[in-house]
Amino acid sequence: MTFDTDIFISGAGLAGMMLAARLSARGFSVIVCDPSTPPDGATVEGSDLRSTAYLEPSCRVLEEAGVWDALAPHATPLAALQVIDSDGWPPTERARRTFQPGDLGLDTFGRNIPNWRAHLSLMDVLKARENVDLRLGVGFSDLVTRDDAAFVTLTDGTRLRARLVIGADGRNSPVRAAAGIDVTTRRYGQKAFAFAVTHDLPHDDVSTEIYNSGGAFTTVPLVDHEGQPASAIVWMNAAERSRALAAAPAEDFAQVLNERSLGILGRMSPVSPIRSWPIITQTAHRVTARRTVILAEAAHVLPPIGAQGLNTSIADIAALSEVLGDDPGDAATLDRYARGRLRDMRLRAGAIDLFNRVCQSGHPAVQATRRAGLAAVHDIAPLRQRIMMAGMGGAA
Asked: Which residues form the FAD-binding domain (predicted)?
């Protein structure tokens, strides 16, 4: 039987491109399609203004995929994680702890890179690979599978025969729908803002999470912007408050921003457009079907806490690339992948779901419990190491 490609990937977001890079580095031929084309700058409509903290295990996967050298020039080290608990409005700090990578024998927890920059760098790498066919502006339309092959139809009418089809096409994955895989979705009535700021004080390569009712407020270090210290902000709020802030005059938004940040980096000033999206936890009931795999946000969507989102997706990529053999769509191979990933995916989603509910609560008893938990996790060394290892992708 003649195949157009070993592996077809629907979705050319960060996870889809990283997956294509890892699989092509292993020698598989790969076709990647996506109905959109990455914006070529931070200010272009549709650009992803979030940033990702690539934890050390993820950096190793990207090195193996042959893409880290392209990403590294845009990376800022994550030298420490600071966690602050606050309550009331304007917020009052109640507890602060700092977690150090040295506890895990590491120099840094990882590297932070703006998503839009990573996307463009990955696209350049894939365009140079002879065994990658990158088709942007063309989407997935239909899927028919047999025991020995998968047949894909694209939105431009092209038909392809592949050994394996992978859905890395987001929380509303068309591949997942075509494979008949259901999901469970939990909604929190929250939305998150993502944008970049400059600030008066240097961040010293420290990322900070500040808890208050409504959700976490996170600062992640970036390279300097026009000579000023800069950070990426992810700011969760109740959806109603997010809508009100989005509609507020710029000076009012800036005032609330600086109150919410507790002044930890001096005065902050937004220097990019402000994007927002709804917060959910979503998990697929299964991650494989005949000749089909779903991964990344097609399989799991997590609230933006603890850098778990894309790092969990990169763990999917590592696990899948390790098990694939001469016939990448072989049923026994896909079963091994599912057994290895489903448990971790569900445990991680459950932990982040619980943590987000605790973080968004304004109830005094819950906030007191949150502060006690922070103190215990940091101050009890064996517990601190276990939680930190779990956050880096190891077993708790």
From this structure: 4-342
The token pair at 323 is 């098990």
pLDDT, position 174 = 98
Mean pLDDT of 377-381: 62
**Dist CA 370 CA 180 (whole Å):** 39
Helix axes 309-323, 331-360, angle to 10 degrees: 170
Q: Three-class SS of residue 256?
A: helix
Query: Does 394 score more than 70 pLDDT?
Result: no
Q: Which two tokens stand for residue 97?
A: 């702890």
Between CA 22 and CA 61, with CA 127 as vertex, the angle to 5 degrees is: 20
DSSP class per residue in 16-57: HHHHHHHHHHTT--EEEEESS---SSTTSTT----EEEEEHH
Tell me the domains of the chain and their CATH numbers.
Answer: 5-43+52-72+113-185+283-361 (3.50.50.60)
Gap between the Cα atoms of 149 and 172, Å rounded: 24
Consecutive H or E run containing 294: strand 292-294
Residue 218 has pLDDT above 90, yes or no: yes
Residues 6+ apart with CB under 8 A from 274: 49, 193, 194, 195, 246, 253
Tokens of 219: 């600062």
pTM: 0.90
